[in-house]
Specification:
single chain, 242 residues, alpha/beta, Rossmann fold
């Protein structure tokens, strides 16, 4: 049994050199080939989620990659309906990840953490509802590498991301890192993928109902999330302060 720590077991510099030369689909194929049953992808069923899911399901990867959906219990009604649409359209086999404690339980113990406008409270919220459920699943299913749809254009933090990095002890791969918002839009149009209902109401990104809003003259992109207090929800970083 190989007990070598993952950060020394793999040459991330070499991996990134390889992945830079590959297309998004080839990156996903690389992940499955390299890690087999220890490879998975996550989805939020947000504005751009259909692209990564379609890349998987319209290729030789179909039904070979585990797909995790992190459901906080606070998603908008439109997201749940959109998820159902994509699950049926793309014939997805989804594993839903949720916190060990219900929304009501959390609110009884900690209050409505998103209302304080304090970074420490938002961090606690994300820890309970997003990060812990994902990290628990990665351990349960022995996942060594997981893919997501993050893009460099989304935040100043993501501009610095690499195609593969170590996040909280597990490799994280980003097949769509170099895609622009236009790339996403035209791919969805070409593949006849349905838009999230909230996109049609001015949302460029959507997470939980209480922490997402449509774009305005004062807020665009990720600044419409978390009241503009934070760029990241904690899933894709090691530093919760981002």
């Amino acid at each position: 049994m190989d007990t070598k720590p993952i950060q020394t077991k793999y040459n991330l510099e070499k991996f990134n050199e390889e992945l830079t030369q590959l297309s998004s689909l080839e990156i996903l194929e690389w992940g499955l080939q390299k890690f087999d049953n220890s490879f998975a992808c996550t989805t939020s069923f947000g504005i751009q989620s259909s692209v990564l899911l379609h890349l998987i399901q319209s290729s030789s990867l179909k039904n070979k990659v585990k797909i995790f959906w992190i459901d906080t219990g606070y998603l908008p009604k439109e997201t749940y309906l959109y998820a159902n649409t994509l699950i049926n359209k793309l014939s997805l086999d989804i594993t839903i990840l949720q916190s060990d404690i219900s929304p009501a339980h959390m609110e009884a113990m900690h209050g409505k953490l998103w209302e304080s406008n304090k970074v420490k409270d938002i961090n606690k919220y994300h820890q309970i509802r997003k990060v812990d459920p994902l990290d628990k699943a990665l351990k349960k299913y022995s996942i060594n590498c997981w893919g997501s749809g993050v893009r460099a254009q989304q935040t100043t933090n993501r501009e610095k991301m690499k195609f593969i990095e170590l996040i909280r002890g597990t490799l994280s791969i980003r097949p769509l890192l170099g895609w622009s918002q236009k790339d996403i839009f035209y791919y969805m149009q070409e593949k006849n993928l349905p838009q999230h209902p909230l996109f049609l109401r001015g949302y460029s990104t959507v997470g939980d109902w209480h922490s997402s809003s449509a774009e305005s003259s004062n807020a665009k992109g990720r600044s419409t999330r978390f009241g503009g207090i934070k760029q990241e929800c904690g899933l894709h970083v090691n530093d919760y302060q981002i």
